[in-house]
Amino acid sequence: MQHNTCHNTEEFPDELPSGTLLLHGQYQIERYLIRGGFGITYLARDSLDRRVVIKECFPHMVCCRMHGLVQAKRREQQDQFDSLLRHFLREARRLAHLSHPNIVGVHQVFEENSTAYMALDHVDGMDLLSVVEEDPGRLTPDVIRDMLTKALGAISYVHSESILHRDISPDNILLDKLGNLTLIDFGAAKEHASREGRALSSLLAVKDGYSPQEFYLRDITQGPSSDLYALGATFYHLITGQAPPDSQQRLAAVAAGANDPFAPLDAETGDYTGEFLDTINKALEIFPEDRIQTADDWIEIIDPERRKQAALARAGKDKTIRVKISKLVADTNRNLRKAAKPGPKKRQGPARANGPGDPAAKQAPVDAGKSPTKPVDIFGNPIENVEAWLWDQDRIAESQPPPNRRQPRVKAMPVLRTLPDIHYPPAPEAEMPKPLPPIGRPLRPTLLRSLIGRLVAVGFYPPKPH
Ligand SMILES: Nc1ncnc2c1ncn2[C@@H]1O[C@H](COP(=O)(O)OP(=O)(O)O)[C@@H](O)[C@H]1O
Ligand SMILES: [Mg+2]
């Protein structure tokens, strides 16, 4: 290939002009959008007149365009350009295999003009840097919380595919009018375990304020918590209006025995819980081992529903859960028995405790004055009228199909006497705890879920590591 020293001139501009056709006319460039370290981004139309975004591999430090073709600026930069081109293609193909509602979709990856292109879904929205600078009122605490959960979902997925994004920052996250969030710009992404060549690492964009300290040095291990640092910095910026101090400065200060110049978010920062803000502070720890380690861990802390689901999933695998539930049920029963008066032999129908003027309400609470123990249900809710509660329990029990035809159902057992019907993964016989003999009806799955939810809420489950 001929190597002329080339510069961006009017005759040979770096950007493709509007109207340029690519891939045999399948795409037509509408206009140039922006240029970054690795490439040029254009707005374009596809053959079905849909709007798309085209990214062109164009690392302008080492290449230029002459007579329509992209080439290394100087002969000695050819290897570097080739290696960046290979990286662009590899990552474009990897991105094309990702499929997630919060990750930009890839239409096509192709080579032309001695370089490579990817055609992406066009997101009709703004990047978060523009939002925080031009329309910060849009970033309410509810919107921020929702965006963080979605961004973490996308990052968790990317990491599960063994990919690190490595360029998470407000300008690489788009927000559309409906509040949908899209992670873009996988130009710096790489496989967890892979090592990039010198060409890529020399060009690897570090973004002050967002990049963790390990991105500034070669040969330092990068991992999922590196992306989480950048995500923490992004949300720190969205919440406070400015990015945290750059991580190298922070590292230098701490190494010199001075204070870390980073000001952590605290409860005074807007309408957020301390727990939520602490997750961002924790992601922004200087040293990787002090950070939140996985996107899923982070989601579990900020999203109670996910925490419950995760606890349920763990409970399904935890062989000790039966013992814990038995203990909780036994404790509840003990309390209930202590408090309950012997009831009449035949029950007379609903005696609701809470209706005003209801004569039943006058019977209750049982022994309220004498007994210091107040009866509670399995969820710890006080039972005002034990008789009414027992009647309700019978009614519920009768509406359930019998668990096992051969087993007589025990009527009017007011409290839980049986172990939940959990499906365990196959395990060696010897390791399984001996199930207690079932006496009453089995717990319904919804009841079991609530019960485990309750265990999680009171900190009884999952077990704390010793
Ligand atoms: N799929 C897309 N839809 C809409 N705008 C996009 C899309 N991809 C990129 N952009 C816009 O172009 C900008 C640059 O794209 P990006 O992929 O981040 O490349 P760069 O490597 O130049 O940072 C983004 O900040 C965003 O404003
Ligand atoms: Mg970008």
Provide structural commentary:
The chain is an alpha+beta fold and 466 residues long. The chain has 3 domains: 1-122, Phosphorylase Kinase, domain 1 (2-Layer Sandwich); 125-318, Transferase(Phosphotransferase) domain 1 (Transferase(Phosphotransferase), domain 1, Orthogonal Bundle), CATH 1.10.510; 373-466, no CATH class. Helices cover 35% and strands 13% of the residues. The chain has a 6-stranded antiparallel beta sheet with strand order 1-2-3-4-8-7, with helices on one face. Strands 9-11-12 form a 3-stranded antiparallel beta sheet. Strand 7 (106-112) and strand 8 (115-121) form a beta hairpin. The longest helix is centred in the first third of the chain and has 20 residues, at 78-97. The structure holds adenosine-5'-diphosphate and magnesium ion. Adenosine-5'-diphosphate (ADP) binds at residues 33-34, 36, 38-39, 41, 53, 55, 104, 120-123, 127, 171-172, 174, 184-185, 187.
Short description:
By secondary structure, this protein is an alpha+beta fold. The protein has helices at 78-97, 128-134, 141-160, 198-203, 224-240, 247-255, 274-283, 295-302, 304-317, 321-339, 359-363, 386-399, 445-457; strands at residues 21-22, 27-35, 39-46, 51-57, 63-66, 69-72, 106-112, 115-121, 125-127, 163-164, 173-176, 181-183, 190-191. Strands 1-2-3-4-8-7 form a 6-stranded antiparallel sheet, with helices on one face.
